[in-house]
Design brief:
Distance between the termini: 46 Å
CATH architecture of the largest domain: 3-Layer(aba) Sandwich
Radius of gyration: 23 Å
CATH topology of the largest domain: Rossmann fold
Strand content: 15-25%
Number of domains: 3
Largest sheet: 8 strands, mixed
Strand order of the largest sheet: 2-1-10-9-11-12-13-14
Shape: globular
CATH superfamily of the largest domain: ANL, N-terminal domain
Length: about 550
């Protein structure tokens, strides 16, 4: 394939002013006193733009301002920096060094953040584990990744302790009672809060894929970069020193991205160990949060609260509600904005490629269900099954290029690539306005009676029905058609709609061959902690 480097470089040069303008609009680019500039420059030159350098810079500028709020209370930027220094010193005494790997299986709280910072200051790699892992999944991941230690919350002891061999030292983070053995808080208390020497390598953050179809894969991430932040901030109006409630798990790509953005923006991060829809609203109101990071199912659960409960909380301080992690149905986007205002932004991407497109409120109003447009520094192209560019208006496999593409899984394999572009694993199309619509996973397409059907299109149609809360569709074997579509539906009220009514509704809006042959009603859909529907569990029903 012909080299695209000159084209890509030229595009980046043209986009540089837009990136600088985006950063300036956030308030990141601002005047500082000469002494502050010296300290900021020193921190970033020595430590780089990753978590260690980013947080040290914040501690230098805002040592006494609140940087983190969790279920235990608040900590200043200076306190978090000193506590993570102490933890890094103690971990080093326990044999954790640059190049080692440490697993983290924690919910959202101070010890997650402090562990991440401590590992960055040691030059160690952090392996972030999904808190819903089963024992066999965890054992497989630990055997493959070979961590030196595992930091975990007490509630996961039943899964963690059998999976840890003699070569993995367990360290307890959150506990609801007195425990023996090493804990993160004890290591902080025993450590030196003074600065650490700069390691000879930068640590990486390893984010695991969702594992919805098998053993999760590790996708390493290096330090965040300003270009990556500029891309997101060019389309999402986050500002300097805002207060951000990260409701999505920090081990997830989307939660981790907001932590990284918070380092650049100087955000006060508000964390809760467990998501509860009413508590989320109360947290936003109490802490006067400016932004909220969620996955779509969280929006859905807040909207399902009784109207008198939901309306009793004020969201007037919220300026940006940013959703990612799974498909955002158009009906859900409209319902949320009608209830809470046009502050919703939807980011489409993956663990491997980070982001691809961003839909602003105006996009979601004009074209419900859209994934939006590529931000600056991002290229999205569609290709057919023969790696040829898809014709205008036609569907194709989605390929992305940006500054945060991963370099391959820790197990050695990678995603499909075409030149500088990487596959997301999805199929989609562009409309005449350049907005992307994701039609579904390329491996979920079913062939029913020689017709191609993407379950996501049927799901989106079903949730547009006023009596449907959520829906999932899967392909099941069929002797006559090869495969047929079965839909699982959650209704707002029991028996609010019948199977024939919903089939007729799909028939009115989609082609006849896309109507599910069977609709089953369920109380809820099985999901992982980040809101993705676990279709393999539906397949087994």
């Amino acid at each position: 394939m012909r080299s695209v480097l000159p084209v890509t470089l030229g595009t980046k040069l043209k986009q540089a002013p837009r990136g600088a303008a985006a950063l300036a609009a956030t308030g990141i680019v601002r005047p500082y006193r000469p002494s502050q500039l010296v300290r900021i420059g020193r921190d970033l030159l020595r430590w780089g733009t990753g978590p260690a350098g980013g947080y040290l810079s914040l501690a230098d500028r805002f040592p006494d301002e609140v940087g983190l709020i969790d279920d235990l209370g608040s900590l200043t930027f200076g306190e978090v920096n000193d506590r993570s220094n102490a933890l890094a010193h103690s971990l080093a005494r326990r044999g954790v060094h640059a190049g080692d790997r440490v697993a983290v299986m924690c919910r959202n709280h101070r010890w997650f953040i402090e562990t991440a910072l401590a590992l960055a200051k040691l030059g160690a790699d952090a392996l972030y584990l999904n808190t819903a892992f089963s024992g066999p999944q965890l054992a497989d991941v630990l055997a493959r990744e070979k961590p030196t230690a595992l930091v975990y919350d007490e509630e996961f002891a039943g899964v963690v302790e059998p999976a840890c061999g003699d070569d993995v030292q367990p360290i307890l983070a959150w506990s609801d009672g007195d425990v023996s053995g090493p804990t993160v808080e004890r290591l902080i208390g025993d450590g030196d809060p003074g600065p650490r020497p700069v390691p000879d390598r930068a640590g990486s953050s390893i984010i695991l894929t969702s594992g919805t179809t098998g053993t999760p894969k590790g996708a390493p991430r290096g330090a965040g970069n300003v270009g990556a932040a500029a891309a997101l901030l060019s389309a999402i109006p986050l500002k300097h020193r805002w207060t951000c409630h990260i409701a999505v798990p920090l081990f997830h790509t989307w939660g981790w991205a907001h932590f990284q953005l918070g380092l650049l923006l100087g955000s006060t991060l508000v964390l809760r160990r467990h998501f509860d829809p009413e508590d989320c609203l109360a947290t936003v109101e109490h802490h006067r949060c400016d932004s909220l990071a969620v996955v779509p199912v969280m929006l859905q659960r807040m909207l399902r609260l009784p109207e008198e409960v939901r309306s009793s909380y004020s969201l007037r301080t919220l300026k940006a509600v940013v959703s990612s992690g799974s498909a955002l149905p158009g009906a859900l986007a409209l319902e949320w904005m009608d209830a809470a205002g046009d502050t919703l932004y939807n980011v489409y991407g993956s663990t491997e490629c980070a982001w691809a497109t961003i839909a602003a409120p105006a996009d979601l109003r004009a074209a419900p269900g859209t994934a939006g447009r590529p931000p600056i520094g991002t290229e999205v192209r569609l290709y057919d099954d023969h790696d040829r560019p898809a014709p205008a208006g036609a569907s194709g496999r989605i390929f992305v290029s940006n500054s945060m593409l991963f370099e391959g899984y820790t197990g050695g394999d990678s995603k499909d690539t075409l030149g500088h572009l990487m596959a997301t694993g999805d199929v989609g199309r562009f409309d005449d306005e350049g907005r992307l619509f994701v039609e579904g996973r390329d491996d979920e397409m079913i062939v029913s009676g020689a017709e191609n059907v993407f379950p996501a299109e049927v799901e989106d149609c079903l949730v547009m029905h006023p009596d449907v809360v959520e829906a999932a569709a899967v392909g099941v074997p069929d002797e006559e058609f090869g495969q047929r579509l079965r839909a699982y539906v959650v209704l707002r009220e029991p028996r609010a709609a019948g199977e024939d009514e919903l089939k007729d509704y799909v028939k009115e809006h989609l082609a006849r061959f896309k109507v599910p042959r069977e609709i089953r009603f369920v109380e809820e859909l099985p999901r992982n902690p980040t809101g993705k529907v676990l279709k393999r569990k539906l397949d087994a029903s």
